[in-house]
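User: Please fill in residues for this 226-position structure.
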């Protein structure tokens, strides 16, 4: 349940509640959902000799406040929900398990209008107008899963991960991994030179492997704060 009250958005999630309830009461309770959606725009300083212009600006703001902020959509990249327009645009998605997920879309600033859009060149996409009045036609990346609190993409590494480090400036996770290679030669030092001796063992001994290769892999992870 969504409630828009004086530039403030309230979201409540319903859940069943059946503990010694009278017959006339609904067996439902509501839980408030925390979010960071802000409908208040930053105010600019206006000089005294521009009172007339400021009055016109206030009128335009009051008109904007009456515009519907919630835009319902179905089957945008397989998801249904509500897009919340305004200075802090958000996706409110319903997952396959019925959970609600809020994902911000800050790539283009404030969004004034939004609508689903579908054709051959933009299958199951959407379009919107930003604050500059520019029309954008876009799609949600299908390689990402939006069922988690953050958009997630699974990448098969096919190796063992040992260390993970985050680079703040580039917003990149560096992953140190290792793979197993069969060892068929043993190095032997003969004076100042190094020679390799080939090992000829039985089949069951060949299962012994050593870690001989270490690879560094960088994987991009979408930061929700940006």
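Assistant: Residues filled in for all 226 positions:
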């Amino acid at each position: 349940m969504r409630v828009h009250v004086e530039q403030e958005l309230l979201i409540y999630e319903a859940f069943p509640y059946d503990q010694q309830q009278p017959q006339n009461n609904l067996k439902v309770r509501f839980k408030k959902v925390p979010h960071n959606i802000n409908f208040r725009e930053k105010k600019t300083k206006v000089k005294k000799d521009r009172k007339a212009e400021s009055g016109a600006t206030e009128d335009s703001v009051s008109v904007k406040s009456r515009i519907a902020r919630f835009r319902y959509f179905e089957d945008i990249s397989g998801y249904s929900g509500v897009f919340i327009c305004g200075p802090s645009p958000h996706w409110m998605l319903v997952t396959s398990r019925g959970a609600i997920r809020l994902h911000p879309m800050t790539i283009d600033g404030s969004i004034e209008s939004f609508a689903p859009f579908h054709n051959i060149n933009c299958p199951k996409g959407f379009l919107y107008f930003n604050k500059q009045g520019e029309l954008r036609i876009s799609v949600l990346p299908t390689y990402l899963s939006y069922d988690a609190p953050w958009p997630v993409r699974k990448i098969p590494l096919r190796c063992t991960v040992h260390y993970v480090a985050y680079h703040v400036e580039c917003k990149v996770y560096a992953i140190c991994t290792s793979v197993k290679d069969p060892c068929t030669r043993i190095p032997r030092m003969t004076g100042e030179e190094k020679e390799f001796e080939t090992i000829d063992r039985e089949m069951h001994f060949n299962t012994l492997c050593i870690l001989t290769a270490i690879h560094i892999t960088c994987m991009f992870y979408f930061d929700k704060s940006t």
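For context: Residues 71 and 184 are 64 Å apart (CA to CA).
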